[in-house]
Structure formats: C-alpha cells, structure tokens
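Notebook entry, structure prediction.
Reason for the run: the old model in the group folder had no record of what sequence produced it. Starting over properly, with the input documented here first.
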Amino acid sequence: MTQEIIGKKLGMSQIFGADGRLAAITAIEAGPCTVAQVKTTARDGYNAVQLGFGEAKRPRSSPRAPRPGVGRFQYLREFRQADTKGLKVGQKIDAGLFQTGDLVDVTGLSKGKGFAGVVKRHHFAGGPKTHGQSDRHRAPGSIGAGTSPGRVFKGTLMAGHMGNQRVTTRHLKVLQADPNRNLLLIRGAVPGSRNGWLLIKKSNREK
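New structure, fully documented this time:
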C-alpha cells in the first residue's frame, strides 16, 4: 500500500487538544485519490503508482491511448514504491491512510513573493547607516574581486525571485484524521497558500 497521498491546503485555525492546550493547525483536504496507473519492475523497470486528485475542467491530452482514470484529474503525481501488491487501477485512497498521532512530511510550493532584495531574501544586514552612505542601507555590498577571479561565482546570494519553490516540512503531527470528510488536521504550518496542492507522506521517524 502506498504511504503518500495528494491533498489541498484549506487554511489554518486553532483547536484545543485533549490536554486543554491551544494548538495551531492546518486543515488539509487529503484525497480521495484514484490510482490511475500501476507500474511494475517487470513491465516498466521500476515500481510506482500514479495517483490522480481533483476533477479537471478539460481532459489532459496524451500522445498515447488514454488509460482508465487518466484525463479527468486536475493533478497527477507518480510515487515510487518498494512493492505495488494490493494496488489496482481505479482504487480509491483517502485520509484513512493516516491515524491520529502519525507523523507526516508535507511538500508544497512556497508562497511567491516576487522580486526581493538581499535583505528580505537572504537576511543580509545591509550597509552602514551613517558616515555619508545614504544609499547603501539595503545594498548587497561586494559580490567578488575584479582582477581575480574577475567574475561572479555561481550561487552568490543576490536579489531575485523569492519564494515559489518546492519546500518540505517534516515530522508534523496529525492531530485529527477524518476519512468521512477526507480531512486532516496537522499541527503547525505547511508550505504554500490556501488551495495550494500538497503531497502528504508518512514520515519515517517514529512517534
């Protein structure tokens, strides 16, 4: 059985735990996902399962003949598996995959911030605020020597597009799992904005 599922971030809220403490939670619509394809080592060279989530407004185009379940999902994702036994095309996988107390890793796209300078993007301290340097408050400073090496090294921290990157937050605790409503309440924040796509995977760390 697969250990991953596709979901959608609904937003954040607060709940009181069994111990009476207030906890910040993220509500996630986890599934239901449909198995669109099962890949095996004998046929494809590796074991994997392709899950579909959400109903697409228009069928996806494919150069090959459409398979059962493909062409009507808004989001398709393939997950490598050690074993694909028990997985069949058309099978439904929902939030029942998780239980209260499980630890999960959540992957999503971080919020895009647009173009940002080095102070906001990389937490630079900025330049001197006195001694006549009135235009260096948020400047990056030197980005390399002139004669040697005579160029800017790759990877130098500079201003640019901030956010909108794949981010994984690990070892988050499931406070509630409701398969009837396909709802997961996870302690803390997860990457992305409201209605953003998420990949939820059981963590390999013990409770």
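Summary: The longest strand covers residues 4-16.
The old model has been moved to the deprecated folder.
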